[in-house]
């Protein structure tokens, strides 16, 4: 199907398998059979096969990074190009650093992504609007699949015995107790993830909780859809978070109603769908769910949102949020009347 066009890489002595550095040179010319390529992208679930197709297509946008000193006529060859790639002064981004991250970046710095004005020469535009749209959708599925794997790995991390500092909490044969000491292991797991991934402990904790939900009986449909990439991580996390405290039969019934439409709806719309389905499926539990949710109200501390500005997130009871919104609307209308151009009328 793809003779002379889509994926085959002709080995050219490159570093095969290096992330971001294709192991060969792509065949020149435009992508052939764009309709077939679009169909292939749409038909593959998230995983290694889809990643290979996507990598082969996007590799067309990578070109050898040139030295900024090439105009001087000195010409240092390939070694010079590799050494000078990555910054204007001829030093790599992680120059002098060691470790896995530095190695990965150094390998990727040997190539650069071409500009939009150069993309026409890559042949990738031959996919057309439909094909490029499917390529973006394929990348979206891969991101969901990666988030699924990340969450499962984080959940499994809480079972590692080395994260427990109290031997008395282990079983007689050295196994970790599934109950005793869990909070300690969860805390240590979130600390490890926070350090390794460069995220907050709160975000790491959410990752752990999402992974544990996906591995439980009550979220089988969500797990399947996130694993194949049909449901992105934001929506999957919303489902597990909203339904984590409801009985398993209710959670499964709500997912049966919400998930078929979820891939084509926004996160906010999925949230409203969940609330509606909960009311239809378990109206008697509404009062208790509201009480639990209201008990989780919170206001975050200011976080930088740009030079000179910060953002604050509020989680409020619905009526309080509506009252605050109406008050801000009134203030905005008053400011608009006084000549403020940014406020809505």
From TrEMBL:
<dbReference type="Pfam" id="PF02720">
    <property type="entry name" value="DUF222"/>
</dbReference>
<dbReference type="GO" id="GO:0004519">
    <property type="term" value="F:endonuclease activity"/>
</dbReference>
<feature type="domain" description="DUF222">
    <location>
        <begin position="192"/>
        <end position="335"/>
    </location>
</feature>
<dbReference type="InterPro" id="IPR003870">
    <property type="entry name" value="DUF222"/>
</dbReference>
<keyword id="KW-0378">Hydrolase</keyword>
<keyword id="KW-0255">Endonuclease</keyword>
<keyword id="KW-0540">Nuclease</keyword>
<feature type="region of interest" description="Disordered">
    <location>
        <begin position="69"/>
        <end position="98"/>
    </location>
</feature>
<protein>
    <submittedName>
        <fullName>HNH endonuclease</fullName>
    </submittedName>
</protein>
């Amino acid at each position: 199907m793809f003779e002379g066009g889509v994926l085959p890489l002709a080995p050219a002595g490159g570093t095969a398998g290096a992330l971001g550095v294709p192991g060969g040179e792509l065949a020149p010319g435009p992508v052939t059979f764009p309709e077939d390529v679009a169909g292939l992208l749409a038909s593959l679930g998230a995983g290694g096969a889809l990643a290979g197709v996507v990598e082969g297509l996007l590799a067309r946008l990578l070109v050898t990074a040139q030295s900024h000193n090439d105009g001087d006529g000195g010409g240092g060859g390939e070694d010079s190009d590799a050494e000078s790639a990555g910054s204007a002064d001829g030093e790599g981004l992680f120059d002098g650093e060691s470790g896995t991250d530095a190695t990965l970046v150094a390998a990727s710095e040997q190539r650069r992504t071409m500009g939009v004005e150069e993309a026409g020469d890559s042949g990738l535009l031959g996919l057309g609007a439909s094909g490029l749209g499917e390529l973006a959708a394929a990348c979206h599925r891969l991101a969901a699949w990666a988030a699924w794997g990340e969450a499962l790995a984080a959940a499994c991390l809480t079972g590692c015995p080395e994260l427990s500092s109290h031997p008395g909490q282990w079983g007689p044969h050295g196994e970790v107790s599934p109950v005793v000491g869990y909070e300690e292991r969860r805390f240590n797991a979130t600390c490890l993830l926070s350090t390794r991934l460069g995220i907050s402990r709160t975000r790491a904790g959410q990752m752990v909780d999402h992974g544990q939900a996906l591995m439980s009986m009550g979220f089988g449909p969500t797990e399947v859809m996130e694993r194949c990439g049909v449901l992105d991580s934001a929506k999957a996390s919303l489902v597990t978070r909203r339904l984590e405290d409801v009985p398993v039969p209710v959670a499964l019934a709500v997912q049966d109603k919400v998930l078929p439409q979820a891939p084509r709806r926004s996160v906010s719309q999925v949230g409203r769908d969940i609330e509606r389905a909960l009311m239809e499926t378990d109206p008697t539990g509404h009062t208790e769910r509201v009480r639990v949710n209201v008990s989780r109200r919170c206001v975050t501390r200011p976080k930088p949102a740009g030079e000179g500005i910060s953002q604050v997130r509020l989680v409020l009871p619905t009526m309080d949020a509506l009252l605050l919104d109406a008050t801000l609307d009134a203030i905005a209308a008053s400011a608009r009347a006084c000549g403020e151009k940014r406020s809505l009328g």
